[in-house]
């Protein structure tokens, strides 16, 4: 029997937001699609999707990028979950995380939204917060910059050099979470770097 997972990269639509910190979730989903040479197409759930496999014939992955703004991501995620018949425990939400240092990836299931309005809206639309999350660290803003402005800023030149590695790590985390489970993914990605 085929097991289907929905992997949603949170972000904002439009070219002006593409390389901002708030869109790192969508960049991770782009990385997963590129690894499989898949292209996104429009879906009636107000999202772009690419259907692919982790294990052909056994584990299907639907990669998704909502066309809505971050704070109203729940509608498209809920609609995709219904369309593909995916329960919350098989919905992986990939998003930026202020409270994690840049270039760090953490995973968890459930818990609070930590002030992340996209995660809050997804939990509200699904009627549960018990879904896996791949949290991609963007760090806190320097000085007194408002976090709301910081997340909408493009990555700095220094961060852009590290970004491909961060996206690759986060994509690895998604694959490991789906393939081997949360604990295996946490053991690999939460361990201190050598």
TrEMBL record:
TRNA binds at residues 17, 69, 71, 117. The record marks 12 as: Discriminates between blocked and unblocked aminoacyl-tRNA. The keyword ATP-binding does not apply. Keywords: Cytoplasm, Hydrolase, RNA-binding, tRNA-binding. It is found in: Cytoplasm. The active site is at residue 22. The keyword Hydrolase applies. The record marks 96 as: Stabilizes the basic form of H active site to accept a proton. Its EC number is 3.1.1.29. Hydrolyzes ribosome-free peptidyl-tRNAs (with 1 or more amino acids incorporated), which drop off the ribosome during protein synthesis, or as a result of ribosome stalling. This is Peptidyl-tRNA hydrolase. It comes from Microbacterium rhizosphaerae.
